[in-house]
Amino acid sequence: MLNYFKKIALLEGISLLALLFFAMPMKYLFNQEIYVKTIGMAHGILFIMYVALALLLKFSQKWNTKFFMLLVLASIIPFGTFYIEKKFFAN
Predict the structure, then answer these.
(1) pLDDT at 90 over 90
(2) Could you give the CA distance from residue 12 to residue 48 in angstroms, rounded to a whole number?
(3) What's the CA gap between 50 and 9, in Å, rounded?
(4) pLDDT tens figures, 22-79
(5) Any idea where the domains of the chain sit in the sequence?
(6) Which of 68, 73, 76, 91 is the most buried (most CB within 10 A)?
(7) How large is the angle between the packed helices 65-74 and 34-60, nearest 10 degrees?
(8) CA 70 → CA 19, 27, 29, 63, 86, distances in Å?
(9) What stretch of H or E contains 31?
(10) Closest CA to 60 of 4, 12, 1, 9
(11) Closest CA to 40 of 64, 62, 16
(12) What pTM was estimated for this model as a whole?
């Protein structure tokens, strides 16, 4: 399950960056809202999967609450999931 979490974390991080640095400028500079709708939906689903998997892993891996909260916080900060993966999960 940890490998699946790492893959979802990567996709969640990419989707956040795509939303912030591509979809939002397209919406506000070129009035193209479709990118925010589609990328935003994908990001929302990936975010929910990321947090749900982190919660499942918190109990199965016996992670403390502080580490779990760090993972959740990293999911809302641009490049946060990449940092967490490199710092704690890189092999």
Answers:
(1) no
(2) 9
(3) 6
(4) 999 999 999 999 999 999 999 999 999 999 999 999 999 999 999 999 999 999 999 9
(5) 2-89
(6) 68
(7) 170
(8) 22, 31, 34, 11, 14
(9) none
(10) 1
(11) 16
(12) 0.92
